Structures are given as structure tokens and as C-alpha cells.
């Protein structure tokens, strides 16, 4: 029997919450593992009751730095009282003085991205630049404090190792295709109507909230090129609105919205807004090609969702994207709208290529498993406990 303590305070939305939603049910079914999970109160209702898992609720705290200080002062006592043997820290930052061996899950690629820091400086968003630099220092120190650090891809693990000077392991995040498509709830009526209105057009899809590092602007600059070649018969569907208030974080969408104004008026860009996750599989299957121009990623779940839906992918040429997609995608230099457009046109003009990429996509998506992820994570935890036992 091994007892784990999962610090999930940072999981309030997005990738952190998705991670726990997938990992905790697998942990609850893993023989010989008991887990205590610390959550913020707003998230407790997400998980119900799970066998072999006990839940604790942290007191409310707002802001990364306040939460970090709270963890340093309150976590050690909670870990000891739970009789845990290994701490799993899920939010990029470690517990400085953990009473048990600690596995740090690091998945924020912005701390190591020179492109992101250049981008926010060019936008004169100096507050975000300073915030990223300070958090990056905490994240780097956290890797030194942890007994083992895990990244969701080998490419990002290599980045972290180079950046921190400490070894970082790669354990791929997983995917559960049955769970992804289990809910038959249709798309919202407005989204369905917008898709139906695009009948006969090449339908591109990009699943993301608006932020800087997903590089929306390069995609927007590629659309006029595509539209001119396809006589206006191209539609880009976004799962966001180009309004700052409608997206999480402090990203300002106004410049992207101004760039996209003409495309919005002609209907080349369709802002669907947020789509419920349970219905997202319907959206993928209503489109022809998945595109992502992101210049920073640590894993990118939408790529696997797209591949599992049989979509060919056009992706920026990042090591992470090549690792995740392999031969299911065509790649382009991350800031080149001309090359992005050329790769989309190559797929559009060759049904044989589109079919080949779609087949590769389905096969590649099947390589990712949350069960495998949990198995490797538990094996690492047992390895740390064993090493402590041997030293004693």
C-alpha cells in the first residue's frame, strides 16, 4: 500500500482542473493506492465520492502568490496527519520543506519561452512580463526543491532540464476517447446554426481561449491568403470571443480583434464563444482541418481531441507539436502566415493527403492513455519511497 497526497489547490479551471478530472478516477481504481486530495472549496463538488480517495478543502485564497504562501505554512501539517508517503504538487510550484518525498508536475511553458517574454514586451504589457519572470523564478526554484519533476512531454522536459539544470522526466498526459464522446448533448443551437451556414466552405477549427502564446494573429493573417485562393469559401471557427472580458487571465484581445475586424464582417472568422466540453466532440467532427499557430506549448490536449475525431492537423513547427502529432500533421514556421496558408491549401487540394493524415491522426490519438499516465506516476512514487527506505 502506498499513500499519496495530491495538492490540487491550483486546479480551478483549464488544464489543472482537466488533469484532476481525468487522473483522480484512475487513482481511485488503482490497487494498493490511497490518496488524499486537497482542493479549493469551489472545486470539491466536481468530484463527488471516489473509492480510496479522501478530500480536504483548503481555505479560500486569491492570487498565485497568496496561495503559494498559504501552501508553505499549512500543507506540511496536513500531509503528516494524512500519513501520506509522497506529495504530488500539481501547480508548477513545490512545497519548500515537504515532510515526504515530492513529485512536482510542471506544465507551464511560458516560464521558459523567450517568444512569450518578447511578445509581452512588444505589447508593452510590462506587468505581465514582470509577473511571468517572478513566477518563473519560483518555478525554477521549485524544480530544485522537488525530489522528482515531471513534464507532460519529452520536448518540454528537455526545455525544463536545460532551463533549471535539473533532470526532468516526461510522462505524457493521457486521453480517454470513450469519455470524450460519451455525452450525446448536442452543440448549442447558435453554434450549430453557424456551422450549418458554412456548408460548402472549408471549415477550420482552433480550440482555445484568447491569449498571446496561442498566436492568434498569425492565423488571422493567413486567412486573407486562404480566402483569395478559395474564393472566400473558408471559415475559421474559434471557441472564444475576441473580447478581453470574455477570456480568462489578463490578456488584452483588442489588437487581435482590430486585426480580425474585416474577417469578422465577411464571416471568414466565426466566434462561437465557449463550447461546453461535453459537446466539443460534435464541433471537431463538423470541421475539416484543425489548426494551431501556438508558439509555446507543454502538451496541447486539443491536438489529441482533434486527432481522435479524425481531423488532419496543421500545426506550428514546435518540438512539442511534432512529438504529440507525429505524422498526423503538416507543420509551418510559427510566425509565418504564408506557410500556414500553404499547408492548409495542400490538404484542401489533396483528398488523398487529407485521408492519410486523418488515418494517422486516429492511430496517434490511441497512443495516449490516462491509465498509462497514472501507472507511471504511481511507479515513480513507489520508486521514491523505495529510495528513502534503502537509505534508512
Strand and helix map with partners:
Blueprint: E1 2-7, H1 14-28, E2 33-39, E3 53-57, H2 64-82, E4 86-89, E5 102-105, H3 114-122, H4 126-145, E6 148-151, H5 154-164, E7 169-170, H6 177-180, H7 189-196, E8 202-206, H8 216-229, E9 234-238, H9 254-266, E10 269-271, H10 280-285, E11 289-292, H11 301-308, E12 313-316, H12 319-325, E13 329-332, H13 337-348, H14 351-365, H15 370-391
Parallel strand pairs: 1-2, 1-4, 2-3, 4-5, 5-6, 6-7, 8-9, 8-11, 9-10, 11-12, 12-13
Structure description:
The protein is an alpha/beta fold and 392 residues long. The protein is built from 15 helices and 13 strands. Strands 3-2-1-4-5-6-7 form a 7-stranded parallel β-sheet, sandwiched between helices. It has a 6-stranded parallel β-sheet with strand order 10-9-8-11-12-13, sandwiched between helices. The mean pLDDT is 93.
SSE series: EHEEHEEHHEHEHHEHEHEHEHEHEHHH
Q: Helical content, roughly?
A: 40-55%
Let me know the CATH homologous superfamily of the largest domain.
Glycogen Phosphorylase B
Using the coordinates shown, work out and report the CATH topology of the largest domain.
Rossmann fold
Q: Supply the helix-strand structural class.
A: alpha/beta
- Could you say how many structural domains there are in total? 2
What is the CATH architecture assignment of the largest domain? 3-Layer(aba) Sandwich
Number of strands: 13
Strand share of the residues? 5-15%
Distance between the termini: 19 Å
The profile of the biggest β sheet is: 7 strands, parallel
Number of helical stretches of at least 4 residues: 15
Text of the CATH class of the largest domain: Alpha Beta
Strands side by side in the biggest sheet: 3-2-1-4-5-6-7
The overall pLDDT average reads: 93
Q: Calculate Rg over CA atoms.
A: 22 Å
The backbone outline, from C-alpha atoms, is globular
Low-confidence stretches: none
Amino acid at each position: 500500500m502506498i499513500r499519496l497526497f495530491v495538492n490540487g489547490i491550483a486546479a480551478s479551471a483549464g488544464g489543472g482542473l482537466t488533469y484532476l478530472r481525468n487522473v483522480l478516477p484512475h487513482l481511485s481504481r488503482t490497487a494498493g493506492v490511497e490518496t488524499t486530495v486537497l482542493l479549493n472549496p469551489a472545486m470539491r463538488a466536481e468530484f463527488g465520492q471516489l473509492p480510496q480517495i479522501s478530500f480536504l478543502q483548503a481555505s479560500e485564497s486569491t492570487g498565485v502568490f497568496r496561495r503559494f504562501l498559504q501552501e508553505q505554512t499549512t500543507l506540511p501539517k496536513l500531509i503528516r496527519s494524512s500519513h501520506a508517503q509522497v506529495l504530488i504538487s500539481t501547480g508548477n510550484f513545490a512545497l519548500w520543506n515537504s515532510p515526504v518525498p515530492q513529485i512536482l508536475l510542471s506544465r507551464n511553458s511560458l516560464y521558459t519561452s523567450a517568444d512569450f517574454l518578447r511578445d509581452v514586451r512588444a505589447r508593452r504589457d510590462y506587468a505581465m512580463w514582470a509577473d511571468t519572470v517572478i513566477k518563473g523564478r519560483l518555478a525554477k526554484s521549485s524544480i530544485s526543491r522537488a525530489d522528482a519533476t515531471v513534464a507532460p512531454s519529452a520536448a518540454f522536459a528537455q526545455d525544463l532540464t536545460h532551463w533549471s539544470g535539473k533532470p526532468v522526466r516526461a510522462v505524457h498526459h493521457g486521453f480517454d476517447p470513450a469519455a470524450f464522446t460519451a455525452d450525446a448533448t448536442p452543440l448549442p443551437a447558435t453554434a450549430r446554426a453557424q456551422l450549418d451556414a458554412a456548408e460548402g466552405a472549408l471549415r477550420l477549427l482552433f480550440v482555445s481561449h484568447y491569449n498571446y502564446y496561442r498566436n492568434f494573429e498569425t492565423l488571422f493573417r493567413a486567412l486573407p491568403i486562404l480566402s483569395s485562393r478559395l474564393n472566400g469559401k473558408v471559415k475559421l471557427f474559434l471557441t472564444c470571443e475576441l473580447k478581453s472580458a470574455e477570456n480568462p487571465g489578463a490578456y488584452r484581445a483588442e489588437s487581435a480583434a482590430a486585426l480580425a475586424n474585416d474577417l469578422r464582417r465577411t464571416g471568414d472568422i466565426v466566434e462561437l464563444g465557449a463550447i461546453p466540453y461535453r459537446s466539443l466532440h460534435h464541433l471537431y467532427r463538423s470541421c475539416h482541418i484543425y489548426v494551431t499557430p501556438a508558439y509555446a506549448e507543454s502538451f496541447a490536449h486539443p491536438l489529441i481531441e482533434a486527432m481522435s475525431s479524425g481531423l488532419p492537423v496543421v500545426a506550428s513547427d514546435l518540438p512539442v507539436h511534432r512529438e504529440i502529432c507525429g505524422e498526423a500533421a503538416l507543420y509551418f514556421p510559427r510566425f509565418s502566415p504564408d506557410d500556414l496558408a500553404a499547408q492548409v491549401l495542400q490538404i484542401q487540394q489533396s483528398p488523398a493527403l487529407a485521408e492519410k493524415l486523418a488515418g494517422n491522426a486516429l492511430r496517434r490519438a490511441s497512443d495516449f492513455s490516462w491509465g498509462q499516465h497514472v501507472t507511471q506516476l504511481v511507479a515513480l512514487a513507489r520508486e521514491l519511497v523505495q529510495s528513502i527506505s534503502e537509505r534508512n
